[in-house]
Amino acid sequence: MNFSFANYDSEKFYDEMFSPEGSVRPGYDHLKNKFETLTPQDLTSRQQAAERSMLSMGITFNVYSEGEGTERTMPIDIIPRVLPGPEWELLEKGLKQRIKALNMFINDVYNDQKILNDGVVPRDLIESSKCFLPACMGITPPKGIWCHITGTDLIRDDEGTFLVLEDNLRCPSGVSYMLENRELSKQIIPDVLARTGVRPVSDYPTRLLQMLQYLSDRPNPTVAVLTPGIYNSAYFEHSYLAQQMGVELVDARDLVISDGYVKMRTTKGFEIVDVIYRRLDDTFLDPDVFNPDSLLGIPGIFEVFKNGKVALANAPGTGVADDKVIYAYVPRIIEYYLKEEAIIPNVKTYICREQEDMDYVLANIEQLVVKEANEAGGYGMLIGPKATAEEHELFRQKIRENPRNYIAQPTISLSRVPCMIDEHAEGRHVDLRPYILYGDEVHVIPGGLTRVALRKGSLVVNSSQGGGGKDTWVLY
């Protein structure tokens, strides 16, 4: 008996593969036909082969929430998510608009502060942000670009409209899973991939390297990836991207400041490093300027950066636009700098520092999702409908004590995609993290990482919270 979608139930959520009437949405025909020629056992064995392949390639991440570092492979689902070309092109246009405006905003915050002087974004909001770095005042990074690599999280609502859930401009992770999910699709369903007309993502490492090299004016600049080390949750990705780009993976022990440059220890002596793709947070970067207890950074590197002798991607200070409270102002930021309306709207957001919004949140917390301003990975978050009365009261107390640190949003039923669950198809909620590179132009990788809430009924897609991934097919 072959696998079938006949009993698949989208349960009144927006479904990416099937319309409410049950017809297949554009782009999914070949996939549906292929899967229905296979038995559930065939599909299960292909799924298991994909998981073994991930493990053998060392594609893992560390989970610290359980009290000890636990290394895991990211669960994957072999039914890809498909986005038609015209729909993607609108998203691409909206993401380019957003990144250009955010880059202008960061540069303004650290220089002229026109947007603060004009009261479009409250000054105290910036000055109280954990990610605002006064040391960056007056700096213009190489080529005027602050946010070189961004992972913007998108969701669909009940109507099928894409919304921006949050911006990740510090050290966005997950791109290695995007690349490997595509490689697994090539192994598991190569015929469908070829027939469907899917845009490639495999050139990401080449584009990343070209973008990094663009930041330096030196001929044939030396690029390195700076990692916090092997115990970081995304260490595999750091080593993977360095290897794919053909550049050195370094940590603080490999770098020194000498003669006004950052230099890397090599077997032939010290070599100047022109561009560093850093995968550690701002405050760990230079113990002389930020956190004096940091053992992960390089003393003096910030001064070299200020003097224009090394490019850092992303630039220190970029995280000020990553603050979830600043997120609420991004439509105003776009309008201020570009004189345009946001192409991709935000999720409706209540800013707890504003009294009227805080009163609403405290009174309706059972229906809302509450988030801390600078947490990530699904941490520091309350999903009101799933939480207990005690948890509601705890978050009410936190909000009252520090309203600036919280926003709230309606609980949105994320769109669903069929997943392989126990040899049959069940719907699971998803989001989408496209990756955007900002060099001589803004380039959006066609696809990104579709993250899946694999736990039945869950809305949390983060890998650290039990989520998994899917390949994302963007059609020509």
From TrEMBL:
Occurrences of domain Circularly permuted ATP-grasp type (ranges): 80-453
SUPFAM superfamilies the record matches: Glutathione synthetase ATP-binding domain-like
Entries under Pfam families matching the protein: CP_ATPgrasp_2 (PF14403)
Highest taxon of source: Bacteria
InterPro entries: ATP-dep_Glu-Cys_Ligase-2, CP_ATPgrasp_2, UCP005522
Entries under Gene3D superfamilies matching the protein: 3.30.1490.270, 3.40.50.11290
Designated name of the protein: Circularly permuted type 2 ATP-grasp protein
Organism listed in the record: Arundinibacter roseus
